[in-house]
Design goal:
This protein has 161 residues and is of the alpha/beta class. 44% of the residues lie in helices and 22% in strands. Strands 1, 2, 3, 4, 5 and 6 form a six-stranded mixed sheet that branches.
Length: 161
């Protein structure tokens, strides 16, 4: 089973999130992560914002993967948000972002962090996968799509676009 499939809980998937800017998106993600971790939302938001200040975490094709290291976080955490309306994110292709896979890792989790980011990038490189996420009806549908994709053997995955 992939790292993503073990990290992403159905309760950490939110659809049609109202966040008209990166700052408001990070605040919303921080509240979501704080509810599950017990950490303060401002600590989480600052971590996401600090990483974003180094360069955009947008992958292109309407996808962003904001991530950060958080002191005191006992284990990696993931969340998915589908935005109600796309927002500018300084993506390499210039497209606004609507699909967001957010990741928090403990302060010292370098190798784990890179492995998860690699899985996420591979998963979101599929145009068919992104289309299915955009049309999913509820968080359980999204969870199934993500865990099924992440758990499949690479030979069964849709071609990357």
């Amino acid at each position: 089973m992939s790292l993503i499939a073990t990290l992403l809980l159905p309760t950490a998937i939110h659809l049609d999130v109202q966040a008209p800017s990166r700052a408001l998106l990070f605040e919303a993600l921080a509240r979501l992560f704080a509810a599950d971790s017990g950490l303060k939302p401002d600590l989480i938001s600052r971590s996401l914002t600090a990483r974003e200040a180094l360069g955009s975490t947008a992958l292109g094709h309407g996808v962003a993967v904001p991530h950060g290291r958080v002191k005191g976080l006992p284990h990696a955490m993931a969340a998915f948000a589908r935005l109600a309306a796309p927002i500018p994110f300084d993506a390499p292709d210039g497209q606004p972002v609507r699909l967001v896979f957010a990741l928090l890792v403990p302060e010292q989790a370098t190798e784990l962090h890179l492995q998860i980011l690699g899985e996420v990038a591979e998963m979101f490189s599929s145009a068919a996968f992104r289309t299915r996420l955009l049309s999913a009806q509820d968080p359980l549908d999204v969870h199934h799509l993500i865990t099924a994709f992440a758990s499949h053997d690479a030979t069964h995955r849709p071609a990357a676009v």
